[in-house]
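Honest question from a wet-lab person: if I give you the sequences of every part of a complex, can you actually get the arrangement of the whole thing, not just the pieces? Trying it with mine:
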Amino acid sequence: EAGVTQFPSHSVIEKGQTVTLRCDPISGHDNLYWYRRVMGKEIKFLLHFVKESKQDESGMPNNRFLAERTGGTYSTLKVQPAELEDSGVYFCASSQTDGGGAFFGQGTRLTVV
Amino acid sequence: AQSVTQLGSHVSVSEGALVLLRCNYSSSVPPYLFWYVQYPNQGLQLLLKYTTGATLVKGINGFEAEFKKSETSFHLTKPSAHMSDAAEYFCAVSASHSGYALNFGKGTSLLVTP
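Yes, you can. This is the full assembly:
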């Protein structure tokens, strides 16, 4: 069974540009989470989908970030326009509904220059 | 609100020695507790978890952790370190009322020396 897959693995963009990160969760997992780790800091929660609905987006930094989950399958996280402080590793995770732990993708390393 | 504190951002042990990584949590509701490991250039892998039931939980690669409510702790141990254990370890807490979103500690980098 495939795990959580994230694309791209690395992205380097200039300040002001737009970047879209994609996450394909484990098939059948209704819960999908996005997290971010800025260098030197802890991994921080961004938002939570249950199927196609945003359950909690309290961790989204600002309105430059837009997340979607089309049809309750894959998810995208768009940053527009990107700023220097958006650099970091973006992780996606998925889980079933039992709270028994989430499975993480390998992350997307975003560098804004 | 929930939070996790990991004591020691870097821990160094000799191969064959005991591994002890400390984690204390704060939670207003019964917590779900986790340890994740990240090897270089890889994603986060679940090592072990405590949700309910037995307070001593065993995970992969010989690791175990004990939930101690009175001490609000969930320390990770392994009797004998192996070179392949070198990685970054994250303690995390979640709860049902927050959709099981994870609150992570800052992580502890484990170095294993020959």
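Two things worth pointing out. Chain B touches chain A at residues 32, 34, 36, 41-46, 49, 51, 90, 94, 96, 98-107 (CB under 8 Å). Chain B has a mean pLDDT of 94.
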